Every structure is written in structure tokens, then in C-alpha cells.
Amino acid sequence: MTEYQKQYEAAQKAGETKTITPEYVEFKKAGDTVVGLLRGWTPVSSAKDEGTYNQYVVDTDKGLVKFALGRATDREISLMLKVDHAYAFVFEGNVKLSGARTVNKFKVVEFGKPEEEGSPPDDDIPF
Q: What does the mean pLDDT of the chain come to?
């Protein structure tokens, strides 16, 4: 019979666990930045209206985090984002629009090269 509790406790003691519950990050001031590997995103229903916005999950140096960028940014970047690519999400502040409306402005920067799983080493190429 498997004793999962004992296995879990042993893994904790050995430092062999990883928390997969992301911590929520809120962008508060211009310059706030999240840097890491994009793991995915999911649509969330807005509490303000009937629309949806995306909530992003990023693996950072400090562990998994989740955050929202807002519908305007979602529309701007949705076709270009790729899971398992590295990004910097930089909050540039709140911009005033006409009619007393505002929008949160972000700069999203992709960097580095994604790791390709399953690529054979150079010496395994058959020819």
C-alpha cells in the first residue's frame, strides 16, 4: 500500500517539491515588471461587465505567478504570445483616454530562445 503522506513529507524534507499554485501579482506603479517563462493563460469573466480578460501564468525566478494585463493589451499581444517563451511584462502606467476613460499600458518584450524538447544532440544525427 502506498503511503502518500510519508512520501510527501520525505520529498519536503529533501527539498524535492515545487509549488504549482501561482501567486497573484498586481501591477501598482510604472516600472513594475514580471520576467519569466510564459506557461499559459486563461480567460476570466470580468466583474465589471460581460466581457473577459486573460490571466497569465509565468514561471519566474521566485516561482509561479499569475496576473492580468487588461483587455486592451490582451488584444494587442494575443496573436504573438507563445507558451514556453521568455517575456518581460513591464507596467508603463495608467493612460487617460477620452470621456474620462483610462487604460493600463504595458510593454511586453520577448527575449532569449525557447528550449526545444526532444531535439537530438549533434552526434545523434543519422547520416
A: 89
